[in-house]
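go over this record:
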Amino acid sequence: MLWFILIFFIIAIGITVGTVYNTSQKRKALAEALSNLAGFIVSQSYLDDSGNTAIAVDDSGNNIYLLKHCGDRVKTRVVPYRDILSAEDTSEPVHLVNFLEGEYKTDSFLYRHAMEQASHWQALLSVLITRADREDKSKE
């Protein structure tokens, strides 16, 4: 019985280490893809904790970059500020960014931090939409 518990414990540790390593590698790949984008100057960025998606803003180029893991590669999509609310890409009209994975109590540090991050990005995107609307109206 002791051997069974020991083997179970070793397998559990192996799975945990493998998951952490995989997530770390995915986040590293997203960060590399972000740093290798030609002509893109990162003003702000967020890589989700699972390493599956990222979002970045280039204020000088008025673009948002959306990054997503697709198998063993990172897919990137450029969205000009003025197109934030349009769904030009009907195959992928939504880009999800996970600010918190799992369930947490609302008074926990992780929950509060994730809410601050999500609120920041919601406010930032709102500002960018307003800016794009203002530019569109000035061109009319």
Summary: The chain has one domain: 2-139.
